[in-house]
Write a structure and sequence with these properties.
About 45% of the residues lie in helices and about 15% in strands. By secondary structure, it is an alpha/beta fold. α9 links the parallel β9 and β10.
Length: about 425
């Protein structure tokens, strides 16, 4: 392997301190393997992964954020329509990428995106122009979401018009993305379902899971005076993440005097106001609001402590058995849960890859019914009463494949292979 330090230009739609742990952690480990990351990304005011942004070579592009709400709304409207009609964001990112490449030679370009493909569009064009390799990383895709959940904004008060606008935007996303996919030399993505779906367009698709940082997430259990069921992250909708089985089980245990709000707490650390609203409304619907605490999200470096002091780690999902269902959603959270070796309760069972992952790792229960959810909670609650703590005998050797450091090695192997192929092509020409 070439030991010369090489530069990888990373174009992404989000980067720490905003929510993109996949690329944030990747840039932590790349230098260990001889790759220097240079990042161009969209600015976001989120401060979730502040520690992952420290010391990084990042150029943030502020498309519309402002403290002034009116000015922010005006800029957002302009950027939205300019991007929809003229690929405005791609033009701005390309301009910054050209400046960067003039200042520093780049050996390879990596794009990382969710449903919007503007970063991949720029990456592909720049790679072709500079005659360097290009890797397209897809963290999320439109097809994994039910009911247009990939579009968070509601454009009007009319559901009919919102559906129309969502359809127009989705067609634009897919048309642009698929055109790039068909010509990409290598695509990386996050689950077996994603690989299968994207392979319909391009067979050069490789699986690199989301994962956990072994420097942060490891078994360090602490006893707690309360039995804590903890959840960290986002609740996009109950169509994607459905906690109803948990709430029904807790209500039943309360009615049978097995638990009490003074010693069992369900704690949500939520990333946005929409998530808080959904959680609050559901707790009222199932009459368990006395058991629930809803907090603001916390910085990533504080999450391990929350997980290690919890009794059950809550994973929210929904069945993936119908076409209009969530598919292949295996986020960072589940791997961080695995790493701390606490019991995981997944509700509702996706009857797909999450269920398979929990079974293969012996990490907990993917629940399909209220009775089995109730039994699981009661078993762990009894263990906590006896020992002051809960533990899960996960298969440690199995979960080590999800280490972020190992995943950085996977990316580097792809980078090096593409570089070698590119060099051979240049030599033959």
């Amino acid at each position: 392997m070439d030991r010369r330090v090489k530069n990888v230009l990373i174009l992404c739609d989000a980067f720490p301190p905003a929510f993109n742990p996949r690329i944030g952690y990747l840039t932590n480990y790349l230098p260990e393997f001889g790759w220097n990351p240079i990042i161009i990304t969209e600015y976001s005011p989120q401060l979730i992964f502040t520690d992952l942004a420290v010391g990084k070579n990042v150029r943030y592009i502020n498309f519309y954020w402002s403290k002034n709400k009116f000015y922010r709304a005006l800029k957002y409207t302009f950027v939205f329509f300019a991007d929809l009609l003229f690929n405005y964001k791609a033009h701005i990112v390309k301009r910054e990428a050209l400046k960067t490449i003039k200042q520093q030679p780049v050996d390879l370009i990596l794009s990382s995106s969710s449903c919007r493909a503007y970063s991949a569009l720029v990456a592909q064009k720049m790679a072709n122009k500079q005659a360097i390799p290009f890797v397209m990383d897809l963290r999320d895709i439109v097809e994994q979401f039910p009911n247009n959940e990939h579009i968070s904004k509601k454009f009007t008060g009319s559901s009919l018009l919102n559906t129309f606008f969502a359809s127009v935007i989705t067609k634009k996303y897919l048309r642009q993305r698929n055109k790039i996919i068909k010509k990409a030399p290598c695509i990386t993505t996050v689950s077996k379902w994603h690989v299968k779906k994207l392979s319909e367009l391009n067979t050069n698709v490789q699986l690199i899971y989301n994962g956990y940082s072994p420097d942060l997430f490891y078994k360090n259990h602490t006893a707690n005076k309360q039995f804590l069921i903890s959840y960290t992250g986002r609740i996009e909708s109950s169509d994607i993440k459905d906690p109803s089985l948990l709430f029904e089980a807790v209500f039943n245990l309360w009615q049978t005097n097995n638990i009490h709000p003074s010693n069992l707490r369900i704690q949500f650390y939520l990333i946005d106001e929409n998530s808080k609203k959904i959680a609050f409304n559901l707790t009222r619907k199932y009459k368990v609001e006395n058991f629930v605490d809803i907090f603001d999200t916390i910085e990533s470096k504080l999450v391990p402590e929350v997980l290690n002091k919890s009794s059950i780690l809550l994973l929210l999902a929904n069945e993936a058995v119908q076409q209009n269902s969530p598919h292949g959603i295996i986020g960072t959270k589940v791997f961080e849960y695995l790493a701390v070796q606490k019991p995981i309760l997944c509700v509702r069972n996706d009857k797909s890859y999450l269920e398979e992952l929990l079974a293969n790792s012996n990490a907990g229960l993917a629940a399909s019914t209220v009775p089995e959810t109730t039994t699981f909670i009661l078993e762990k609650y009894t263990e906590w009463q006896q020992n002051g703590i809960t533990n899960q005998h996960v298969k440690v050797d199995f979960i080590q494949q999800f280490s972020r450091k190992y995943q950085a090695q996977q990316f580097v192997a792809i980078f090096e292979n593409l570089l070698q192929n590119s060099a051979r092509l240049k030599t033959s020409c």
